[in-house]
TrEMBL record:
CC annotations in GO: membrane
Protein's name according to its UniProt entry: Phosphonate ABC transporter ATP-binding protein
Residue stretches making up the ABC transporter domain: 2-237
Lineage: Bacteria, Bacillati, Bacillota, Bacilli, Lactobacillales
Gene name of this polypeptide: phnC
GO MF entries: ABC-type phosphonate transporter activity; ATP binding; ATP hydrolysis activity
Keywords (A to Z) from UniProt: ATP-binding, Cell membrane, Membrane, Nucleotide-binding, Phosphonate transport, Translocase, Transport
Record flagged with keyword rRNA processing: no
Length: 237
């Protein structure tokens, strides 16, 4: 469960990106966060895994106070939260499988990561994650040979391999064409339903948000202005 209580975030430059946010997200929900550019969507999700720190209020994940985590605890904490970006953030010149393994096996030495000498168990875990997003056949292909949609699915497999309970996605389909965007959204939906992973997704396509998410959170100028089931949203809005 993710809980924001009176959370505010002011950046060092004086911009207030979140104002008195109160929000509870239960395990297994599929939530879309919608709002104009600059509304605070990205700040909201990046506070959850402490890529950004909050300035005021209380933020807990599974009853752990996110602000109080020391650096060692933060590393453990972040392993249960997968993060997906608009730009995929993959290492394009190595294989798909190595991308999945490099970040999901944190205890590996730098040398083993560099040479790709993974254990059989690691490889099986990576291949299973690729299978879940339908790109097992690309395991030994270099990432720069793949389409954008395939690359986003590699990023998704990479987070699955770390066995997360939450996936945060910051505009994951913004750079994809409409057909490919739906393929990737289908993956998010399947992962959410079949694996009981909470999915929080920032998305500026309201139509996709309504089609895929169970709950819509609207944010404007750092404040929550709408929160309800997607089935309640007037399609004309
Ligand atoms: P969205 O994701 O909805 O586009 P953001 O969370 O990125 O919104 O931004 C919210 C506000 O905070 C904007 O005014 C933006 O310019 C500002 N902002 C975002 N990131 C930073 C940062 N790292 N430092 C200072 N201001 C920031
Ligand atoms: P803190 O108050 O703990 O520095 P911030 O939210 O300001 O928290 O920053 C969190 C992280 O985001 C830091 O690692 C910082 O380097 C990074 N960061 C801050 N501003 C920017 C920016 N404009 N662009 C990219 N990263 C940023």
């Amino acid at each position: 469960m993710i809980k924001f209580e009176n959370v505010s975030k002011k950046y060092p430059n004086g911009v207030t990106a979140l104002k008195d946010v109160n929000l509870t997200i239960e395990q297994g929900e599929f939530v879309a966060i919608i709002g104009l550019s600059g509304a605070g969507k990205s700040t909201l999700i990046r506070c959850i895994n402490r890529m950004h720190s909050i300035s005021d209020g209380t933020l807990t994940v599974d009853n752990e106070d996110v602000t109080a985590l020391g650096s060692k605890e933060l590393r453990r904490f972040r392993r249960k939260i997968g993060m997906i970006f608009q730009s995929f953030n993959l290492v394009t010149r190595i294989s798909v499988l190595n991308n999945v393994l490099v970040s999901s096996v944190p205890e590996l030495s730098f040398w083993r990561k560099l040479t790709g000498s993974f254990t059989k168990e690691d490889k099986i875990r990576g291949l299973e994650a690729l299978d879940k997003v339908g790109i097992l056949d690309k395991a030994y292909t270099r990432v720069d040979q793949l389409s954008g949609g395939q690359q986003q699915r590699v990023a998704l497999a990479r987070t699955l391999a770390q066995n997360p309970s939450i996936i945060l996605a910051d505009e994951p389909v913004a750079s994809l064409d409409p057909v490919t965007a739906k393929v990737v959204m289908d993956d998010f939906k399947r992962i959410n339903k079949e694996m009981d992973i909470s999915v929080l997704i920032n998305i500026h396509h309201v139509d996709l948000a309504l089609e895929y998410a169970d709950r819509i959170i609207g944010i404007a100028k750092g404040e929550i202005v709408y929160d309800g089931p997607s089935s309640d949203v007037d399609q004309e809005v």
